[in-house]
Amino acid sequence: MPFTFDWGRCNTVLHNLYRVRDWSSTPKEIVRASSWSPMGDLNSPCYFMDQDIVIPARTCLQDELRGTFGSLANVKPSRQRSILVTFKGKPNGAGASVRDKVQCERPYKDIHGKLFGANLKDRYWGQLKPGADYMETIGDTIFCPLPRGTTGWATRTSDVIYA
Q1: Is the separation of the CB atoms in 54 and 38 below 8 Å?
Q2: In what helix (H) or strand (E) does residue 86 lie, and over which residues does it extend?
Q3: For the stretch 90-105, what's the b/e string if a residue is b when 16 or more beta carbons lie within 10 angstroms of its beta carbon?
Q4: Whole-number pLDDT of residue 53
Q5: Which of 69, 99, 108, 145 lies 20 to 30 Å from 157, alpha-carbon distance?
Q6: Rounded-to-integer distance, Cα 40 and Cα 115, Å
């Protein structure tokens, strides 16, 4: 019988999100149950990837995303996009070291011979396209890295799927 809970099969309520991985455990009574939740954290004891179903959370930008990218006519094909990669995240909380690495200075900026035409495209790390808002920037970007954060899922996943 499936059940739902924010932290998957860990039925503890923690007010410290950063401790869920080491302060939670799966009760033996529900080890064989299937959890339907927004939590899909592979690094916690609360999620079994072969047994649980992750339902992505609704993002704060859901209505704006539908308005901007709701029609395929508003989604720019990747070959027409001017930005190779954009990452606009905050390097704090769980997963901070991964997000720091994504934003670090890249001495290998020119990648000749690797991706045809890639050196002609812009790259934005830790910032948006100048003069553009978040929606315009992700709508003009080919790759949007989504490193893990406080939870196993990231609300930005929904954002880039729309874009």
Answers
A1: yes
A2: strand 83-87
A3: ebeebbeeebeebbee
A4: 80
A5: 108
A6: 32
Q: What is the mean pLDDT of residues 53-62?
A: 75
- Token readout for 8 is 């998957």
Rounded to whole angstroms, what are the CA distances from 156 to 24, 62, 145, 160? Answer: 25, 11, 10, 6
The CA distance from 145 to 48, in Å, is 24
Radius of gyration of the chain (CA): 19
Coil, helix or strand at residue 118: helix
Return the closest-CA partner of residue 57 out of 136, 4, 100: 4
The per-residue pLDDT for range 66-107, each reduced to its tens digit, is 999 989 999 999 889 998 888 776 655 555 566 666 666 666
Check if the beta carbon of residue 30 is closer than 8 Å to that of residue 3.
yes
User: What backbone torsions phi and psi does residue 104 show, to the nearest 5 degrees?
Assistant: -65, 160
* Residue in the block written with tokens 């059940």: 3
